[in-house]
Design brief:
- There is one protein chain.
- The chain is 63% helix and 14% strand.
- The protein is of the alpha+beta class and 466 residues long.
- The strands form two sheets. Strands 1, 4, 5, 6, 7, 8, 9, 10 and 11 form a nine-stranded antiparallel sheet that branches. Strands 2-3 form a two-stranded antiparallel ribbon.
Length: 466
């Protein structure tokens, strides 16, 4: 049996034990008294039926709450799954962003390397430019010197005079070749000068273009990196928000599960209460049958007694001798007896609970002795419950009718049970052995007496024991 809350256990057990009924020493009651008891038992049976109907209604209400709770749990679980899906998607997005940022950083490293290469190239070109500038400067000087020579000779070189001044044909050939050489050199100098200047301008343009391109690429990549980092920060913030939502939903789910457990406990308690009320109703029905049987016996006995008296009267009329006395009803059974021998270890009333260490009502008397000590029925009656009951452990409950009043007795923490539900027992009959089952700190019997009807509470057993 699932563990119950102690107040609920007490409420259920009190209700069950108080509601039980049985007939004690019915043979000693008059026919009118038995009729009255039968009517009382019938009324009690009807009352139990009403109570069972109320429990059915409560069970339906509780089942409705359970269904509603399960529906809420289903909705919350769906929301949790959606949040978990969003978290997984966001985590993937963050991973993608981190990959893009890594790629961007690699691109920036490549551009940095490219810029460094360009710096080396610029340095190399600067060196080439310096060489070209020096070469151009020398050529400029050479050209200027030639121009000055030409100016000194009248403004132009008279190559014809040089050729015509030859002394011989061989000298003519030599002079002509020298003039061609000078002219070719002047032409080469001019062409080389033009090429160097053109190369100088091209090199400068190349360096500037490459530098601008790389710097533009670097700026673009850095801007993209900043955008990716901002997107990553937004995703990280979204993860934090989703984590918070997940915590809230998981807390709500925990509350709903705890509520569901409470409702399940309540349902089990109602089922248990219904079962015990059914057992109580069976005990009442059996008591009613016993009373009706005893009533029939008394009616038959009264009929036989009337016939006997009529016969005696006829005999007296037919003879001078007579007499005889009418037997009376046998005496009613005694009240309660102590259910076990032993030391009274705890009395009825408020006390500090030995297990829970808090002030609680002790609804019976504890009798301590060795394990297996005989537990006896305190009065004759019908067993309304025999089994395990939460903190009471192995428990027997017996219902009684004594002097027209109904009672129920409870015997808890038994090591063994010797009777079964619905069984009739006589006063002093063994119903089990003393033990320490359930919530118990040692071997003892916990004994309760419940006077009256259903839900009227317990009473101090000493008020009913000899």
């Amino acid at each position: 049996m699932k563990k119950r809350c102690i107040p609920v256990i007490l409420a259920v057990i009190l209700a069950i034990t108080l509601g039980a009924f049985q007939t004690n020493s019915v043979k000693a009651d008059s026919i009118d008294s038995l009729k009255e008891k039968i009517n009382e038992l019938e009324n009690e049976r009807q009352e139990l039926e009403n109570q069972r109907g109320n429990i059915d209604s409560n069970r339906n209400d509780t089942q409705g709450k359970i269904d509603e709770n399960l529906s809420e749990q289903s909705d919350v679980e769906k929301e949790i799954n959606e949040i978990d899906h969003d978290l997984q998607e966001t985590a993937k997005d963050i991973e993608d962003k981190e990959s893009e940022i890594t790629e961007t950083n690699n691109r920036l490293d490549e551009l940095a390397d490219r810029i460094e290469e360009l710096a080396d190239r610029i340095e190399e070109l600067n060196h080439q430019i310096t060489v070209l500038e020096e070469r151009i400067e020398k050529r400029d000087k050479l050209l200027k010197d030639r121009l000055r020579s030409i100016q000194k000779s009248g403004g132009s070189m008279n190559y014809i005079e040089v050729i015509m001044g030859a002394q011989s044909f061989g000298d003519f050939i030599s002079r002509a070749a020298a003039v061609n050489t000078i002219m070719d050199q002047d032409k080469s100098i001019m062409e080389a000068q033009a090429r160097d200047k053109e190369e100088l301008q091209a090199s400068k343009a190349e360096v500037e273009a490459s530098k601008e391109e790389v710097e533009a690429s670097k700026a673009e990549v850095e801007e993209r990196k900043l955008a990716l980092e901002e997107q990553k920060d937004e995703l990280v913030a979204l993860v934090a928000q989703l984590d918070e939502q997940m915590d809230e939903k998981e807390s709500l789910m925990a509350e709903l599960q705890e509520e569901h457990e409470g409702l399940e406990e309540e349902m089990l308690t109602l089922e248990e209460e219904q079962e015990l009320i059914a057992a109580q109703a069976a005990a009442v029905e059996k008591s009613k049958q016993l009373a009706e049987s005893e009533k029939s016996k008394l009616e038959q006995k009264a009929k036989e007694e009337a016939e006997r008296k009529a016969a005696e009267k006829r005999a007296q009329e037919n003879s001078s001798s007579g007499g005889g006395s009418s037997p009376g009803n046998s005496g009613s059974g005694s009240d309660f007896i102590w259910p076990a021998e032993g030391r009274k270890s705890s009395e009825y009333g408020w006390r500090i609970h030995p297990i829970h260490n808090e002030r609680r009502m002790h609804s019976g008397i504890d009798i301590a002795n060795s394990s297996g000590t005989a537990i006896k029925a305190s009065a004759s009656g019908v067993v309304s419950f025999a089994g395990t009951m939460g903190g009471y452990g192995n428990t027997v409950m017996i219902t009684h009718t004594i002097n027209g009043k109904t009672f129920s007795t409870l015997y808890a923490h038994l090591s063994s049970i010797s009777v079964s539900k619905g069984q009739s027992v006589s006063q002093g009959q063994r119903i089990g052995g003393m033990g320490t089952t359930g919530s118990s700190t040692g071997v003892h019997l916990h004994f309760e007496i419940h006077p009256g009807g259903y839900g009227n509470g317990t009473a101090n057993p000493r008020n009913y024991l000899p």
